[in-house]
Amino acid sequence: MKIVVLAGGISSERSVSLVSGTSVCRALRENGHRAILVDMFLGLEELPEDPETLFDDPAGLCKDVKIDAAAPDLDAVRALRKDQSDCRFGPNVLKLCAMADIVFLGLHGEDGEDGRVQAAFDLLGIRYTGSGHMASAVAMDKVATKRMMDSLGIPTPEWRVMTYTPEEVEELSQELPMPCVVKTVDGGSSLGVFLPDTREELKEALLAVLKFGSRVLVEKRVYGRELVAGVLGERYLPCAMTIPADNGNFDYVSKYQSLENGGATELCPAPITEEEQKMVGELTLKLFHGLGLQVYARADVILDDDGNPWFLEFNSLPGMTPASFMPKEAAAAGMSYHELCEEIVRMSYALKRRG
């Protein structure tokens, strides 16, 4: 197949997306596909006379990329584009996507996970991997996901959604119940998530989270084993477990840096009982179907000391970097990285989309 692996974009998870996309593109090429990596925001300023030849590029247009400890400087990325347009699709991106048999969405964050890219592709008749636009939008919105959990009887920590001004933070920091978690409604990669331990830290968190959006989710903090539960097709995968670094937070650095550089410890499969795995897996599948998700996704779950699961959120486009959970969980189920990429393409190609 001719496959465009769409990655990058202009979200705060740009670097993660580029590493995911590069890994996927190389795997698909080794599987025999004519795959190329295209940066959604930067695109390709110039195309050869016959754009078809790009699919035969020996490196698949891939470059060496990595995830730095800090989130990317998006203003610097915007400055790289000659047309300085606000359009999320860079030069020639849609043209190349339309030439492909399918687009593998290696996007993360608001570029790709909120459903807008999927909706555009549906209108243009472009095949793509993963869930459709509506399910992606719902899963990206943590409040909408919480409401779905409540309606399905999926256990989730007590929560409330808030809008407030900086002037109201002082009062809120003294009134909100502790311990709690403060997070942006539509963030990812643990960006915009705060775990305050004191009232002063809560005040700082309430101010800092406003950088990510006006709606803020505050939920009761539940303690226990931190699990990641993946779904592939119609089956759940073995759970993974994370043990946060010394700071106790599973933040952006912990998620993507090595252990010696402050990263978290990850165990896959998770050291839980068969009964706990079955319980978490079946609830994950129930929520997966309730949200209308397709092909693959993963949930974040806390298993408390009494063995009760508490679902936090769902990720409709899980990371596909070498350090990501989805490939690790697939490996625990006996599936190689190359096989996982192939299975995602196969299942997605067979879907009947609106368009």
CATH fourth-tier homologous superfamily of the largest domain: ATP-grasp fold, B domain
Order of H and E elements: EHEHHEHHHHEHEEHEEEEHEHEEHH
**Radius of gyration, CA atoms, in whole angstroms:** 20 Å
Total of DSSP H or I helical runs spanning 4+ residues: 13
Number of strand segments: 13
Helix proportion range: 25-40%
First-residue to last-residue Cα separation? 21 Å
Number of domains: 3
What is the annotated CATH architecture of the largest domain? 2-Layer Sandwich
In round numbers, the mean pLDDT is 91
Structural class: alpha+beta
Which segments are poorly predicted (pLDDT under 50) over 5 or more consecutive residues?
250-262
Q: What does this molecule look like?
A:
The strands form three sheets. Strands 8, 9, 10, 11, 12 and 13 form a six-stranded antiparallel sheet that branches. Strands 4-7-5-6 form a four-stranded antiparallel sheet, sandwiched between helices. It has a three-stranded parallel sheet with strand order 2-1-3, sandwiched between helices. The chain folds into three domains: 2-130, Rossmann fold; 139-155 and 223-333 and 345-349, 2-Layer Sandwich (D-amino Acid Aminotransferase, Chain A, domain 1), CATH 3.30.470.20; 159-220, ATP-grasp fold, A domain (Dna Ligase, domain 1, 2-Layer Sandwich), CATH 3.30.1490.20. The chain is globular and about 65 Å long. With 355 residues, the chain is an alpha+beta fold. It contains 13 helices and 13 strands. Helix 5 runs antiparallel to helix 6. The model is unreliable at 250-262 (pLDDT under 50).
